[in-house]
């Protein structure tokens, strides 16, 4: 996986590297494959490699469906958001294309996740444009996919893909805050204080 990811930007090896990664995803956990691939590309400076892997990830998303990644979608998304900050315009555009496909499949839950994440204002603006330019397909997880991971298929899942199924919210959990634990212990006492005309400030 590491070698295929590192060579995917080589024009002579792009097709074979892409095919290699695809074949591995059929027989191994796609989440693990993409984790190793993105880590490998992080160590490569050439923008061609980053661009090529992003193009492949979009193809993966279409052919396997994001359901093949299950909760591993989060790790891939975090990496893609980081690539949105790349100075190379081709890399940035490829990242936008992947986000567009992800939004088609995940919809509002993806938007909520990005808004709750610590991203720069420029990335936030870029992502908002992507969401406006792409329509969410509520039935995306039920679409029959071209490829599937044979080691993770089940009779309960959608045709194609990994067979895991699951809706968007189960694949991408939005960070939450326990409001009760965030309140100070004397909050209720201060709210009930009506001792003077300035008590409302508490």
TrEMBL record:
Region (Disordered): 151-171
GO molecular function annotation: microtubule plus end polymerase; microtubule plus-end binding
Designated name of the protein: TOG domain-containing protein
Coiled coil location: none
InterPro entries linked to this entry: ARM-like (IPR011989), XMAP215 (IPR045110)
Gene Ontology biological process terms in this record: establishment or maintenance of microtubule cytoskeleton polarity; microtubule polymerization; spindle organization
Domain of life, per lineage: Eukaryota
């Amino acid at each position: 996986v590491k070698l295929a990811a590192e060579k995917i930007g080589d024009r002579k090896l792009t097709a074979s590297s892409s095919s290699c990664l695809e074949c591995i995803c059929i027989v191994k956990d796609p989440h693990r494959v993409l984790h190793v691939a993105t880590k490998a590309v992080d160590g490569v400076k050439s923008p061609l490699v980053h661009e090529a892997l992003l193009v492949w990830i979009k193809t993966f998303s279409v052919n396997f469906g994001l359901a093949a990644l299950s909760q591993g979608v989060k790790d891939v998304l975090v990496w893609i958001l980081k690539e949105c900050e790349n100075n190379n315009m081709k890399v940035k555009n490829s990242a936008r294309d992947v986000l567009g496909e992800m939004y088609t499949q995940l919809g509002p839950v993806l938007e909520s996740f990005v808004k709750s994440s610590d991203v720069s204002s420029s990335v936030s603006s870029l992502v908002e444009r992507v969401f406006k330019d792409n329509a969410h397909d509520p039935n995306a997880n039920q679409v029959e996919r071209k490829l599937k991971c044979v080691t993770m298929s089940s009779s309960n899942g959608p045709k194609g893909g990994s067979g895991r199924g699951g809706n968007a919210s189960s694949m991408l959990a939005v960070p939450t805050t326990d409001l009760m634990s965030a309140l100070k212990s004397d909050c209720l006492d201060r709210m009930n204080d009506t001792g003077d005309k300035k008590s409302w400030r508490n």
